[in-house]
Amino acid sequence: MRAPFGARLTTAVSLRGPLCVGVDPHPSLLTDWGLTEDADGLARFADTCVEAFAGEIAVIKPQSAFFEAYGSRGIAVLERLIAECRAAGSLVLLDVKRGDVGSTMAAYAQAYLAEGSPLAADAVTLSPYLGFGSLDPALDLAERTGRGVIVLALTSNPEGASVQRARTGDGRSIAQSIVDSASERNHGVSPIGSVGLVVGATVGETGLDLSKLNGTILAPGFGAQGAGVGDLVRVFGDSLRHVLPASSRDILRHGPDAAALRTAALRVRDSLTALGHGV
């Protein structure tokens, strides 16, 4: 039985630094790398990312949609990427953002969190906007298998604010209600719980009380999307020690040379380590 995701993440960050590298093989990026926009180009892209990051970076976050776009061959590439990154010691956070109810949510949980599934990662992203309770099948299975769930709370896309910043009957924002539900799941767990949150690094003033979360905060938007070290400090304040910044395009633009990609990732990682924080 593996250790819980929260404990494994804490160890990985202590050894490899607080950085999550997104592996987002956008078609335009394949072209920039001189690769064909097909499953063969996707496979070469994935192999280069494994070579560049898997031996050095704490968390690698493949965006599932860019692999799904190539059908069964793309999914096969994703399965191999997950296995090879994990074999090299990196944790894999599979960015799927699934959200559904009942047996369908249970099926998604089996796909991404069950023992023996070829797509099983160390953690997945999920959407709680059918109600936080709809995630229970995934949360329960993740707990049994030592895996993690990172739940969307406050995202940086402008469309999200109309839902996420709306108020519930008790005056809390929807995002705060998600924070509170995640906090309940993590209560009393040491060193941290395995239910994390997504809070965009470019959202500005969050209005969230994150003090009781006891879990990691994935902060996408660091780098090319505009957030720098100063933004992390302003957005997250006292919760900064729990933040795992995520960067994709700002690092991937240095490809296709694996050594150049690794150098870029380590430069970003070292700038975050110097900030003196980590989950």
Automatic annotation (TrEMBL):
SUPFAM superfamilies recorded: Ribulose-phoshate binding barrel
UniProt keyword annotations, A-Z: Decarboxylase, Lyase, Pyrimidine biosynthesis
SMART domains, alphabetized: OMPdecase
MF terms (GO), sorted A to Z: orotidine-5'-phosphate decarboxylase activity
Reactions accelerated catalytically: orotidine 5'-phosphate + H(+) = UMP + CO2
This protein's record includes keyword Lyase: yes
Pathway: Pyrimidine metabolism; UMP biosynthesis via de novo pathway; UMP from orotate: step 2/2
Active site: K97 (proton donor)
Magnesium listed as a keyword: no
Gene3D superfamilies, A to Z: Aldolase class I
Top-rank taxon: Bacteria
Domain Orotidine 5'-phosphate decarboxylase residues, every copy: 18-264
Protein name: Orotidine 5'-phosphate decarboxylase
